[in-house]
Amino acid sequence: MKISADFPEPLPPPKKSDVLFGFSSRDPWSNACVNTEWQPDSFYALGYREGAQRLANHVLETHSDQDTLIFPIVFLYRHHLELALKRIVQITAIVSDVPLTGSEAQRLFGRHELDQLWAQVKQRLRSAYEKANLELPDRSAIEGADSYIRQVSGVDPKSQAFRYPVSSKGAPHLRGIRHINIRALAECMERLCDFLERIEGELLMYLEDELEMRASVP
Questions:
Q1: Residue 154: is its pLDDT beyond 60?
Q2: What does the alpha-carbon distance between residue 50 and residue 47 come to, in Å, rounded to a whole number?
Q3: In the chain, N or C terminus with fewer CB closer than 10 Å?
Q4: Please, are residues 183 and 58 in contact by the beta-carbon 8 Å criterion?
């Protein structure tokens, strides 16, 4: 499979002198910037979501590759959700003036269970929204997020089921599931991603307003 029209086909075998991570002047437009001062950590989450979107769109537009691309599509959406939930936990802690302790942060970053991360978000959400004088999301939206996250967690509790065909104990993943409709999945994932993005955006806007107010006080 060609990555670019400029690539020879078939591609030559790997060479010891090849550089995988670095700048290339051959095609500067393809150099990705990472680890820069202007680049927020949210780029990680955005990148995984965009990757899932592009793969899902490929399947829906070409009516092909669904049986192979389903695995990275679900993994990418799931990892986006994990990163988004972790960011919201951190933001709610800042808004509520109850920063995470070192041990709490360590546990948060090491946790991969979406249902547990969502439970932490809900536990902190009311106090953060009250502090920010914001109206909490509709109960129906919270219940919808509950359902989506419960379904994803039921199929893939620890972000393994769409990365490996079997567990570390040799048990096959995705038992009992024969079909996954990529259109339905992607639409639901986008709705959940948008919902979490709105929560994050509202709280970040409050923090920005607070910083501006404090900066204006002589």
A1: yes
A2: 5
A3: C
A4: no
Write the DSSP assignment of 22-64 as a string of letters. Answer: S--SSSGGGPPP-S-TT--THHHHHHHHHHHHHHHHHHHHHS-
Mean pLDDT for the chain overall: 91
Q: Could you give the count of Cα atoms lying within 13 Å of 190 in the half-sphere of its Cβ?
A: 13
Token pair belonging to 82: 């994990």
Chain Cα centroid distance, residue 137: 20
Residue 37 lies in a domain: no
Residues sharing a CB contact under 8 Å with residue 182, sequence separation 6 or more, in sequence order: 56, 59, 60, 66, 69, 70, 73
In a domain, 167, yes or no: no
pLDDT classification of 99: cutoffs 50, 70, 90: confident
Within a domain: 216 = no
Domain that holds residue 92: 62-162+172-203
